[in-house]
Specification:
Layout: E1 3-7, H1 15-26, E2 31-34, H2 44-47, E3 51-53, H3 62-65, H4 73-78, E4 87-92, E5 106-111, H5 122-127, H6 131-151, E6 157-160, H7 163-173, E7 177-179, E8 201-204, H8 213-223, E9 227-230, H9 236-242, E10 247-251, H10 255-264, E11 268-270, H11 279-285, E12 290-293, E13 308-311, H12 316-327, H13 333-341, H14 345-365, H15 375-382
Helix pairs in contact: 1-14, 6-15, 8-12, 11-13
Length: 384
Amino acid sequence: MRVAIIHYWLVGMRGGEKVLEALCKIYPEADIYTHVYDSSAVSVALNARTIKTTFINDLPYAKRLYKKYLPLMPMALEQLDLSKYDLVISSESGPSKGIVPNSSAHHICYCHSPMRYIWNMYNQYYSGSGYLSRMLMPPFAHYLRAWDVGTSSRVDSFVANSATVAQRIERYYRRDAQIIHPPVDTDAFQPVGADEVGSNYLMVGELVAYKRPDLAVEACNRMQAELVVIGGGEMLGHLRKIAGPTVKILGPQPFDVLKYHYARCRALLFPGEEDFGIVPLEAMASGRPVIAFGQGGATETVIEGRTGTFFDEQSIDAVTNAIERFEAMDFDPAHAVARAGEFKTQAFIDKFSDFAACSLARSISGPAERPRPAPVLVRTLEGA
C-alpha cells in the first residue's frame, strides 16, 4: 500500500511532530509532504524519511516567516500530486487536510485542532495583532474558514487527539471523529526518591499568551512560593520583568535539564487551556502531580485528587487557592506514573493502526456518501 503523510510544517519538534514520528513507525515506507522543511530543527528519524515540500518552502525566509505565507497554503496544498497513493494521512493543525486525493485513495485526517487562529482562538490572535494585521485578518479569515469547511468533505475519516478537539470538529465541520490521544514517550522520564523532590513548583512550555504563564508567575509572587519556568517565546522578557525573588525564569533548556526539573518539582503548574497537553503527562511520568486549569485536554489526563487537582478559572486567586488545596492533599507518585503509562507511544500505534485498518475496510466494502460541509457555510460559499 502506497502511503503519503501530509504535515503542516516541519520547523521544530513539538507534539505534532511526535505524532508524525509515530505514524512513520506504523508506515515505514510512507512519503512525507509539508509546506516548509528545516532539517536542522527536526529529529534524525524524520530526516531519514523522504520529505517533499510545497512551493512555500522556496519563498523568501520561509523557514522563519512561514506563517506569513498562510494565505498561499491552500493553493500550495492543492497543487500536490498525490495520484499514486492509496492511503493519505493528513496531520492537521495548520493547513494540511486540504489536499486533493486520488478518487480511489482513502484520506484519514489526524486533527490536533482545527486551525486555532481562524476558529476558537481567532479573537485572541486578532486582539494581539498589529494594526496592519487587524486590517487584513477579517477578510482573510473569512476566506480561509470557507475553504477549511469545504475541504473537510475531502476527508473520509477524522481522528481527534482529544475529546475537546472532537467537539470542535463536530461544531465547525459537522463531522464525527474517533478520539485517539497522541503518543507520549513516558519511558524517557523516571521518578526520583522523596528525599530528592524539591520545594519549588514548575511550569514548562512555550511562553505565549494563551498558555497563561503570567498566572503561574503572579500566583507564586503573591504566595512567595518557589517557581521554576522553562521555555522560550514571546512572553519570556515580560515574565522576567514581573518575576519576584522566588521565581526563576530559565528560558529554553535542553532535555536533560527539563527531565531533572520534572522529577524534582513539588508539582507542575499548568494554567493554560490546551487541545490535549503532553506536558502534564511528562510530569506525571516523572512521578509528580499536576495543578491545572480545568478545561481542555488536561481534564482527560489528570485525575482530580489522585494525580493532581484543578482550578476553575484563569485568575491569580484561583491558582493560589488550588495551590493551597494541593498542599493539604496526599499524592502517591505511583498513581501518576501509572496514569501516564496509559498514553505511551505504543498505545497510540496500536489504536491508530486498528482504526486505519477498520476505516480502510469500510471504504473497500462499499463507498459511503461523501459528507457535506456545514450548511450555513455552504450558503456563504454559494453567495460569495
